[in-house]
Design goal:
The chain has helices at 4-12, 27-34, 44-51, 60-63, 71-98, 123-126, 149-153, 157-188, 209-223, 228-256, 270-287, 289-309, 318-335, 359-369, 385-405, 420-430, 487-496, 517-530, 550-560, 572-581, 588-593, 595-611, 632-643; strands spanning 348-351, 375-381, 411-416, 440-444, 459-460, 475-479, 505-511, 537-541, 617-621, 649-652. It is 48% helix and 8% strand. It is α/β, with parallel strands linked by helices and 664 residues long. The strands form two sheets. A five-stranded parallel sheet has the order 3-2-1-4-5, with helices on both faces. A five-stranded parallel sheet has the order 8-7-6-9-10, with helices on one face. The chain starts with a helix and ends in a 12-residue tail after the last strand. Helix 3 (44-51) packs across helix 10 (228-256), helix 8 (157-188) crosses helix 9 (209-223) and helix 10 runs parallel beside helix 13 (318-335). Keywords: Chloride, Glycoprotein, Ion transport, Membrane, Potassium, Potassium transport, Sodium, Sodium transport, Symport, Transmembrane, Transmembrane helix, Transport. Residues 358-434, 457-664 form the SLC12A transporter C-terminal domain.
Length: 664
């Protein structure tokens, strides 16, 4: 049975004086020992596992890199030279001992051949020794049996013991010193809070005394096993795991093409690193499959924990570099791909200002863009340029961290402008990259609505925590008043795919004629089924164009009174001057021209109160106004009249580009 002790003697005896006298006469012994002779169910890899710890000093130079004057030059030269020297020594010891000692011997010098033996072809027979009894009974001598064979063949036996002690102590001390320091550095990063106590150091050199004690106890536990042939495969398994990770890390760093990764070794090749990692993993399984599997589970568990917890440390890892590279390459690749209705995703520029100042708007948009589409939080900074630029620099990091901390998958995009309208224009022109460009612009409603006439496309009722909690078994009411490409239907569907909204039912409201209500309901049900939109009810409103109540008309007139021009009551020159200076005001002619549309918004508000007053959210087609014909004040008054005294309402205006398809 191969012995770790025997192996240790063969490795560590560097000062041994070998017996090469009469070597040429013992070629028979060398020839007989040259091939393998595995016994007791041992295999090549079981013996390899015992021998492997002898070759684990390859990182010795890297572990003391901080103490080297020129580590970039010393480590590769020293490591390669050490490998060369130890390889020659190991092979020399194996050849010399394999030429001097047979595998099995009785240890009795009187076991010589007295009579001529037939069918005896062993090297011992040729040298006039009879060890045939070892084939029947176990012998205590020979390469396979005697752990002290190196001392026996050496010129000075105590030198062997001295070599073993010195090599063992040096290796043990190196591990006892380096391992706690590495573990201390790991604990300082607070990656695993349970080990935070081992980050504490003592003395001028910040010595990890607690780590020393832990390392000592672990080493003591292995020593108490008291069987080196059992310990060696376990050690080999963990060494191979660490080498596999190192090789793969090097390969991964090269794959990421980070400018900071600049290996100086002339013969470095990333594919050799990958091959080394694969070979280490394979050998781990061949040596001991269950130990290898356990090691993989432990390493994978630690990796998943770090990935999930996302500790607040920045190592400049190759994972970050590869993530950037992949994002860049895929963004460039996508820029040459035309949009297709099957791949439509909501990509929203949300005018949040400071993200934490409008949580309702932020949470609602996040609910239908999370893991699906792009969300950009736009913030317009106004005021003196120097001060605004300084604030932008601070806010960029501050609010992006806030988004990450609150698990908001969004980007923060600040701009500087002289006023809010100009800043909104800048954001609309520049937000996004390639296909990652926003298609929807969302703004939270403001009561001082005349400042928002240029860019308002969607209207949200303010409710600071409305969409942060579970929405229960209520309804999402969709008022699909005209075909806008399907965006008004898609957003409610995306909401119901999220955990907070999954118990809500979708109700669809459409306009129609009283004498065709059943027909319109069946047609809409068929259409929604083809679109694979799950709905609970369809309601056809046949009275959508009737005149609203008189008191509501009066309330609307009172609301718009401060914003009317009343040009008929003024002189022509004064009226023209006011039109030029305040183009957003409502003229008498305009109010009369769009009376029907005004009544429609007031009537819709009445119907909304009647049918959707208990809904969690209302998603509705945004009224369309002809550009340049309808003043901003009148348009905002329509929106106010439409959304007054209602649950949160999302007004959606698609561009008539289809976002729904019958096909998967």
């Amino acid at each position: 049975m191969p012995s770790y002790k025997n192996k240790g003697i063969l490795i560590l005896e560097l000062g041994n004086i070998y017996k090469f006298a009469n070597f040429l006469k013992k070629t028979e012994i060398f020839n007989e020992n040259f091939g393998p002779d595995f016994r007791d169910e041992e295999t090549f890899f079981s013996v390899f596992a015992i021998f492997f710890p002898a070759a684990t000093g390859i990182l010795a130079g890297a572990n003391i890199s901080g103490d080297l004057a020129d580590p970039q030059s010393a480590i590769p030269k020293g490591t390669l030279l050490a490998i060369l020297i130890t390889t020659v020594v190991y092979i020399g010891i194996a050849v010399s001992v394999g030429s001097c000692v047979v595998r099995d011997a009785t240890g009795n010098i009187n076991d010589t051949i007295v009579t001529e033996l037939t069918n005896c072809t062993s090297a011992a027979c040729k040298l006039n020794f009879d060890f045939s009894s070892c084939e029947i009974n176990s012998c205590s001598y020979g390469l396979m049996n005697n752990f002290q064979v190196m001392s026996m063949v050496s010129g000075f036996a105590p030198l062997i013991s001295a070599g073993i002690f010195s090599a063992t102590l040096s290796s043990a001390l190196a591990s006892l010193v380096s391992a706690p320091k590495i573990f201390q550095a790991l604990c300082k990063d607070n990656i695993y809070p349970a080990f935070q106590m081992f980050a504490k150091g003592y003395g001028k050199n910040n010595e990890p005394l607690r780590g020393y004690i832990l390392t000592f106890l672990i080493a003591l536990g292995f020593i108490l096993i008291a069987e080196l042939n059992v310990i060696a495969p376990i050690i080999s398994n963990f060494f191979l795991a660490s080498y596999a990770l190192i090789n793969f890390s090097v390969f991964h760093a090269s794959l990421a093409k980070s400018p900071g990764w600049r290996p100086a070794f002339k013969y470095y090749n990333m594919w050799i690193s990958l091959l080394g990692a694969i070979l280490c993993c394979i050998v781990m399984f061949v040596i001991n499959w269950w130990a290898a599997l356990l090691t993989y589970v432990i390493v994978l568990g630690l990796y998943i924990y770090v990935t999930y917890k996302k500790p607040d440390v920045n190592w400049g890892s190759s994972t970050q570099a590869l993530t950037y590279l992949n994002a860049l390459q895929h963004s460039i690749r996508l820029s040459g791909v035309e949009d297709h209705v099957k791949n439509f995703r909501p990509q929203c520029l949300v005018m949040t200002g400071s993200p934490n100042s409008r949580p309702a708007l932020l949470h609602l948009v996040h609910d239908f863009t999370k893991n699906v589409g792009l969300m950009i939080c736009g913030h317009v900074h106004m005021g003196p340029r120097r001060q605004a630029m300084k604030e932008m620099s601070i806010d960029q990091a501050k609010y992006q961290r806030w988004l990450i901390k609150n698990k908001m998958k969004a980007f923060y995009a600040p701009v500087h402008a002289d006023d809010l309208r100009e800043g909104a224009q800048y954001l609309m022109q520049a937000a996004g990259l390639g296909l990652f460009f926003y298609f929807s612009n969302l703004v939270q409603k403001n009561t001082n609505f005349e400042n928002f006439e240029y860019f308002l496309k969607n209207n949200l009722l303010e409710a600071s925590t409305q969409f942060q909690k579970k929405q229960g078994k209520n309804t999402i009411d969709v008022w699909w008043l005209f075909d806008d490409g399907g965006l008004t239907l898609l957003i409610p569907y995306l909401l119901t795919t999220k955990k907070k909204w999954k118990d809500c039912k979708i109700r669809v409201f459409i306009g129609g004629k009283i004498n065709r209500i059943d027909h319109d309901r069946r047609a809409m049900a068929t259409l929604l089924s083809k679109f694979r939109i799950d709905f609970s009810d369809i309601m056809v409103l046949g009275d959508i164009n009737t005149k609203p109540k008189k008191e509501n008309i009066v309330a609307f007139d009172e609301m718009i009174e401060p914003y009317r021009l009343h040009e008929d009551d003024k002189e022509q020159d004064i009226a023209d001057k006011m039109k030029e200076d305040e183009p957003w005001r409502i003229t008498d002619n305009e109010l009369e021209l769009y009376k029907t549309k005004t009544y429609r918004q007031i009537r819709l508000n009445e119907l909304l109160k009647e049918h959707s007053s208990t809904a969690n959210i209302i998603v509705m087609s945004l009224p369309v106004a002809r550009k340049g014909a309808v003043s901003s004040a009148l348009y905002m008054a329509w929106l106010e009249a439409l959304s007054k005294d209602l649950p949160p309402i999302l007004l959606v205006r698609g561009n008539h580009q289809s976002v729904l398809t019958f096909y998967s």
